[in-house]
Amino acid sequence: MTKIDIEVDTDSDRFKREVARNGNPLSQIALVYEDDAFPSRDWLDFPVVVLAWWLKDYFKLIRSHKTVVSTFMNGPFEFEIIPRGDQAGIVFRRRTTDGFREEGRTETALSQYGEALLRAARKLVQAIDGLGASGNDIDYLKSLLARDRVKRA
Questions:
Q1: Nearest CA to 54 among 131, 120, 129, 130?
Q2: pTM, full prediction
Q3: Measured distance CA(101)–CA(89) in Å, rounded
């Protein structure tokens, strides 16, 4: 079983400038597994929006036990999460003009993916709050995190 993590840059000067500019930063975000990262460790996207989408997908997956596809906002990348009991297969793909090309795959505990997702979202919210920024997208991400706390109570 592979450990998976979600890395979001919240420390760089670029991140801080982006937050100060509009509160919804363009920042590095990647899913890290084994010795790889998807799409790459230096991939730039909008993590506030993307993590909100992924949280919604994760809650749907937990509720329905059906496969979900999570996407990035920028570029042709997505990953499919296929539940198998308390485990999950994750297939990383790139959209092409001919359909999809698999970029990699891994297996992980479903709870481990969920914990990585929640950890990344909380870290991002904390960093943005610490810089005094706000906005509709960050408020939505916070509401999804609050929903998770209610579900666990």
A1: 120
A2: 0.93
A3: 16
H/E run at residue 109: strand 99-109
| CA-closest candidate to residue 19, choices 153, 137, 150, 144 | 137
How confident is the model over 7-50, as pLDDT tens digits? 999 999 999 999 998 888 999 999 999 889 999 999 999 999 99
Buried b (16+ CB within 10 A) or exposed e, 58-96: bbebeeeeeebebbbeeeebbbbbebeeeebebbbbeee
Distance between terminal CA atoms of the chain? 28
Cα separation, 146 vs 109, whole angstroms: 23
Q: Residue 116 has what DSSP assignment?
A: H
